[in-house]
Amino acid sequence: MNSKKPILPAEFLLGGAISSSQAEGAYDEDGRGLETQDLRYFDYHWNREQRDHHRNVNITTPEFNQAKVTSQTDNYPLRRGIDFYHHYREDIKLLAESGLKIFRTSISWGRIFPNGDETEPNQLGLAYYRDMFKACHDNGMQVFVTILHYSVPVHLVENYGGWQNRKMIDFYVKLAKTLFENIGDLVDYWLPFNEINASRFNPYNGVAIIKDQFANEHDYLQACFQALHHQFVANARTIELGHRLLPHAKFGGMIARFTTYPATCLPADVFKAYTDENIKNYFYTDVEARGSYPYYMVKYFKRNNINILMNSTDKELLKNNTVDFLSFSYYMSMIDTVDIKEYRKTSGNLVSGLKNPYLKTSDWGWQIDPEGLRTSLNEMYDRYQLPLFIAENGIGAYDKVENGKINDDYRIQYISAHLDEIAKAIIDDGVPVIGYTLWGIIDIVSCGTLEMSKRYGIIYVDLDDSGSGTGKRLLKKSYYWMQRVTAGLKG
Ligand code: BG6
Description:
The protein is α/β, with parallel strands linked by helices. It has a single domain (about 15-490), classed as Glycosidases (TIM Barrel, Alpha-Beta Barrel). It is built from 18 helices and 14 strands. It has an eight-stranded parallel beta barrel, surrounded by five helices. α5 (about 85-95) packs parallel to α7 (about 125-140) and α12 crosses α15. The longest helix is centred in the middle third of the chain and has 29 residues, at about 215-245. Bound molecules: 6-O-phosphono-beta-D-glucopyranose.
């Protein structure tokens, strides 16, 4: 093994990521329609336990209906975000000045088609994204667009039932086509769906399905997988169209990577972790990258009495329109075993897991595991031989402002350890990794718990969980550290 510390290559795309629903705010401005993320309720008086409890509870139909008719923003933090909608020019300039080379954000579907099923787009929405992406390029940053990051027009849920309805494919493809035709020249990388495995692990966010509308667990699961199939088809049709309209554009697949180790070397634990990896991760990338449903899912569906309805051309469409690269979010790893009572539980992104005795956790209980990222990169490249992109990584932490400064050494340590492992994967192991976008590069509202106090950014935003504060941006210690890292990358 090489004893010199490997360094990221100069062409590596180091950048930052956010999503429209967690950052933009301005939920009812310039013709934007109401979206599913605008309806998620939060009470800043909740204690830790209540916050964590609500994180795991899907929205109920009464909550959804109540939220639809209220115009207050106080208890709906995703309606206000960090007001990026009105501050994007300054924010993008700050990001560019940290030396980052790429910016990832998502499109608010409701800004382009307020109800989702109109024939004509909202020009103000298109103008906003055009201007924002132009600002990125003017400031020397490439653009990485997620077409759908968890938020769909509420009208599509009420009138069509969300992604369980096949009509969603056409509405989505119309959105994609509109984007290709109007802002396609400004986008460098496309991600049709954020974390497509959220369909199973967070269905309200992933496929716009409300759990209490199903008679039992089986019907719910059936709807989630049917909805997922519609997203797979929409993904393939988008890639087909995108390759035709934008011959130079690159289209990626993305999952939330649940890296899972066997808790012991007991062969039954090894097999449990192996099947978990398949069912939670690889099923989704197998379809997106290999173009067909894998054998183990055929059996899984049979065992669970799940029947996916497909059109006669779906299989061919999936086969012929696979992704150009694969990406994933990576925050932590977990362990699995056949003997779970032996282990303590701990939290994680979208799912909870068992505590690995060798790993420390973040303030929110997510297990910090930089080496697991190297392993995951190797495993994914070995399986698909496609370039990889780490679309999200970062640490949610409580930051303290002391004398106008934020000394977030814990964040520097976290990012630095993960970048080191990526460098090893590239240089020592030979894995082609295109880039890395740090999640929540500027503080935004947490998607899981809706807390503003769960901060990921290298730029601090002066807002608290109740939405109070000046909204002013402050540069953290990690921002200045990032400047040195990016300067090093430029050689
Ligand atoms: C990812 C999502 O799963 O995790 C993001 O794509 C989210 O939207 C991120 O913000 C971190 O999760 P959280 O719950 O800490 O915001």
